[in-house]
């Protein structure tokens, strides 16, 4: 019901790129990030 009442415009490609450029540190490849959890030194097959 709320989805019908609120019209949120779809971001453009340039808006996506601007957001990415301003927040690159949030887009990490090859490294897991979980806020508040330190994964360094954890002995788990899920953490490489």
Report the uncertain regions: none
Please give the radius of gyration in angstroms.
Answer: 17 Å
- Number of helices, where a helix is a run of at least 4 consecutive DSSP H or I residues: 2
| Helix fraction bin | 25-40%
Average pLDDT: 75
Categorize the overall geometry: elongated
Largest sheet: none
Q: Report the β-strand fraction as a percent range.
A: under 5%
Distance between the termini: 43 Å
Helix vs. strand class: mainly alpha
Helix-strand pattern:
HH
Strand segment count: 0
What would you say this structure looks like, in words?
- The chain is mainly α.
- The chain has 2 helices and no strands.
- 0% of the residues are buried.
- The model has no long low-confidence stretch (mean pLDDT 75).
What is the element layout, followed by pairings?
Elements: H1 2-5, H2 13-22
Question: What is the compact description of this entry?
Answer:
With 48 residues, the protein is mostly helical. 29% of the residues lie in helices and 0% in strands.
Highlighted features:
48 residues, elongated
């Amino acid at each position: 019901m709320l989805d019908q009442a609120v019209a949120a415009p779809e971001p453009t490609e340039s808006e996506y790129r601007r957001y990415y450029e301003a927040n690159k540190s949030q887009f990490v490849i090859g490294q897991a990030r979980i806020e508040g959890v330190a994964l360094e030194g954890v002995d788990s097959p899920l953490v490489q």
